[in-house]
Amino acid sequence: MTVASDSVTIGTTIDPAEAAHFGAMAKQWWDPRGSSAMLHKLNPPRLRYIREQIDAQWGGDAPSFTPLAGKTALDVGCGAGLLCEPLARLGATVTGIDAAAENVAVAALHAAASGLTIDYRTGSVDAIADRYDLVTCLEVIEHVTDPAAFVRGLAAAVAEAGLMILSTPNRTPLSRLAMITIAEGTGRIPRGTHDWSKFLTPDELTELLAAAGLRVIDRRGLSFSPATGFTLSDNTALDYFLTAVRA
What we know:
- Helix content is 33%, strand content 24%.
- It is of the alpha/beta class and 247 residues long.
- It has one domain (16-246): Rossmann fold, CATH 3.40.50.150.
């Protein structure tokens, strides 16, 4: 098991405007009808995917409630803790890092009220020296200034036998229509949340991971329909997950 220290380096991949944008939403982060409502809808398929990858990597017992017992987890771009708290309940010793101090403050208060011990920090993973069994970074890389440097920072945080799980929107006409024209245009997502030109295709992100010394072992799509909401699928046109290990 790897152990986190108290040091976090503020890295150059943080975009101050992006940090301010998300920090302004901090107080509503845990409101399922607030500005982060879409993230609440994303969480169930996210957690299904993460659980699948955990069990596949470490031979977990599917009925177990704590498959991450004895392991450390780092969530990069943790917001107010929507993923950190489930990871803690799965048994992990969890560290959450976010660029917005407002998010970290709300996350710490919510964890304490929930009876969970989570190490929340303001900063970036760019130069963090610690290594973790599980590193997650969901819907974050499209908001950084230098994706290649950011991925190198993520890779450096993965333990030798560790696992990294990322998700991000694909750069396709569908994602532009669904996430910007419709979702932001109708206020379902706050305007200005996304810059479509910064979205990465699965192949582009796979290349960045390979350059950082990681090997992709799984690729999965995240689809949406009015009838079923967000679901895992083989279609990566809207959004997708990549799971990687050390090459």
